[in-house]
Amino acid sequence: MNRRIVILGFMGCGKTTVATELARQLEYRFVDLDSFITESQGRSPAEIIEQDGEPAFRQIESLALTEVLKDRDGRVIALGGGTWSVPANRTLIALHDCLTVWLDAPFEVCWQRIIDSRTVRPLAPDRETAKARFESRRDDYSLAERKIPIQPSNSVAAIVELCLS
Ligand code: S3P
Q: Whose CA is nearest to atom 5 of ligand 1?
């Protein structure tokens, strides 16, 4: 397989962890879109959203995605939780012939990880808001080429194997 792989799904579904391991196994580069934005902007996505608002962040995110997709080498790209919900981003990804993989974790799994991570997530400030966002994005996420159902008991290795099968 020499196709770029795009890992998507809600906050806390395990995108970064799974994409890192997938890239290691395939000997591909790993690119985390949130980290790419943090490095290029000098501010994290959360800081940008808090300071400039979500629409400004989405513009920055789309430009970052364009940059990340430019190189044609084998790479695994972990999106941010909302990247895939922007139609123009989906079109861009489709134009680059990437394998798109949705990590379909239940809301409770994502929410528990969001709480445990203790990182600031301005778009998931409380359970109710996070749940509404989770539900509103499912239709978009289901447009991914491949869907991997995630259960709390799944090991990272098992999830990676499913991604590759
Ligand atoms: C967001 C998810 C975050 C980050 C930003 C917006 C979202 O990434 O891109 O805070 O809209 O769901 P993670 O999914 O990696 O937490």
A: 45
